[in-house]
Predict the 3D structure of the following.
Amino acid sequence: MNMIPPRNAQDAAYNFAYLDEATKRMIRRAILKALAIPGHQIPFGAREMPLPYGWGTGGIQVTAAILGPRDVLKVIDQGADDTTNAVSIRAFFARVAGIATTTHTAEATIIQTRHRIPERPLREGQVMVFQVPMPEPLFKLEPRLAETRRLHALGDYSLAQVKLYEDIAHQGEAGSAYNHPVMVGGRYLMSPSPIPGFDNPKLHNSPAIMLFGAGREKKIYAVPPYTTVESLDFDDHPFKPMRAPHACSACGSATSYLDEIIADDQGGRIYVCSDTDHCGENQGR
Amino acid sequence: MYVAVKGGEAAIEAAHAWLAERRRGDAALPALTPRQIEQQLGLAVDRVMAEGSCHDRGLAALAIQQARGDLIEAAFLLRAYRNTLSRFAACEPVDTGAMRVERRISATYKDLPGGQVLGPTFDYTHRLLDFTLAAEGHAPQEAEAAQPTMPRVTELLAREGLMARDAPDDGTPPPDLTRDPLPFPTPRPLRLQSLARGDEGFLLGLGYSTQRGYGNAHPFVAELRMGAVEVMLAPAELGFAISIGDITVTECQMVNQFAGSAETPPQFTRGYGLAMGHGERRAMAMALVDRALMAAELGEEATAPAQDAEFVLLHADNVEATGFVEHLKLPHHVDFQSELEKLRSIRAAWESQA
Amino acid sequence: MSAALLEACGLHLRFGAVRALDDVALEIHPGEVVAIVGESGSGKSTLLRVLAGHVPAQAGRVLYRDAAGDAQEIGALSEAAKRRLMRSEWGFVHQNARDGLRMGISAGGNIGERLMSAGTRNYTEIRTAAADWMARVEMDPARIDEAPRNFSGGMQQRLQIARCLVTQPRLVFMDEPTGGLDVSVQARLLDLIRGLVAELGLAVFFVTHDIAAARLLAHRIIVMRHGRIVEEGLADRVLDDPRHAYTQLLVASVLSA
């Protein structure tokens, strides 16, 4: 379990991790700026990658920029290592970087993810790389980038708070089931990427580094370790993480985030951990 | 007991094998070659070069073959390849004034120095399917291109003081859209770069909208020219520019009305379009949208979608657009699950109050 | 700076050849209501926009004495400072309610926005304040969750007023607040404004072409023509004893109320 997984064979036709060194340097500079200003979006010169925009190019560019030969990479999508896009991205890095890959959260040094944070608590030295479709937390309320830039500069987030007020007034609770905006370091409003609200608390005071890459929108942002991250709410209507009120059919966990599976033609349902590695560990595999 | 679904890797491999079969099609037929595509589907190649931001006919043709004819997929392939190439120099701006013209028309003047040269155009064809092509028709005659002097129409207008001139080149290198993210507000060089590689359909729709009243500026085609221009590069060792080859481009200059302001008298303004290869539709649409996007600078009220720079520039790139639109096919069940739970929770509250 | 709340001097603004503001100077004191009257094209709306910091003048300056007693030059304020000012000590009521409201947000949300902007984080507190203010502007608090697009023009204006007043501003700018409304609706709205102004001790600049409204609400009247101030003084004096030929014309052309 504690052995470092073997490295793959790197395809010699490409530079290590595909990107040229100048591009990596440009991305790293953006990452450093992002870490220095937690939650603030840093523009960067995103490149077309061999996977389409919207399919993780931001996350891939961040991972490519920070990847080293001794890193161990885990890639998940919807919490699972075996979903098609996770498989595709993991295979991409195995081929162009030759680094070791793993499905075990505990073994990974870099975890690239789409839409989930692993259930297992992260530790110092681990880096989460999030794939982000829309980095701007206010985009549904104000699509113009010039205007939202000004709002961030002025720290003026009344729009988001008003939207929250409206949700509570009309439906009794906050409307965003996923991608619920968070306040980082008490200063910048940030989109945590489309993770379920259930995962938001994992961002708060984490020992790991959280990096967010939006390739198509060309923005990078970050949360350094042990940073305050608070979901937007009201004092008398605090943010409530939600999960299906069931236990996992495979491992019995009553605390992990669950996928709902339609089991038969009559619409019968069972619930299974979304985090496949976690579920496997619980089952003793 | 439920066993989690596995096999993503095998599924992807099988999908790729099937794709390769489909690409080849009926094995009894001769396989296409990129050379055939480059020669006989030249306009498709031109579009892919323009939207791929890379002038290489052979590569564009290969991309079209690999993409099974999906031109946006082909443009994406070419863009991704472009990013692996190292950039060691920038050439001089191409001099379209010195173009070896194959086609040049002006709608603003009936006749002008250099004349109206029709070139190889669909404009006056009757759109009747030509079945002789299916029966392997004869090769067309290559017309000898006469080249009298062809001054720019916009230059003729500028000399009379009726058209504003663009600011002269002060030598600062232009910003590069493929290296740095787009800032807002966006300076004109970047707007033009963005339009030059924007989706032809999107630009066409926007250009069309300006003609129908959404930000109309009464356009005329001052000049449309298509032909070969030399690409000049000045290597540091030589200290002077040399020609490294030529490429075909299409250039369109549109003339539009302008009311004038406190500082400037009323005069014509120009919309500019430039496309790799023979791309008239693209160049013309680009010129219309270019002019529409000048609204803010000219102090005009910007009310129409084509005048909204953020709207136009952020949605013109079809490689970005297709990626994001099609990413909806990716699994979203985790987010959907949270929506399900939220809706159930809200409904429970609603029902308990009813 | 004098004891004035807001003071402007030497204001100039040209659009091409047209002088929208030609050497305009004025001031307003706490609790004072000043009407700026004139026909279309007189420059009155431009003047309001310049005083309110929406548009910069090409010459001259506008000084505001804030709650702390400091003189602030509006043209020199950072955007952050100006925004803060506009959401706390100032209010602006637009002629068209659509410009001053979020049409897709509920009445409660519209009123509560300023409070949320100022940092209030208690939902109940915000909602109570919103309902309270709706009552004060004579709206039915039961409609707190409805969007303004369902309200009549008069109600939209009341909502705009409530939205401005919720943070107890000291100075409010109004641009033809009753324009486009029915005569009877106008009268009630003017009554409401008059009551609130007196109750809250607000200073108000309001622009109008309606002399009757000016007489009803204003302590002082400023008459504008072609970008210049041609006459000013106490409301009754200006309307009963107009000195400038243009003012005389204006007053005479209005049928007595």
User: Anything to note?
Assistant: The first strand of chain A starts at residue 42 and ends at 43.
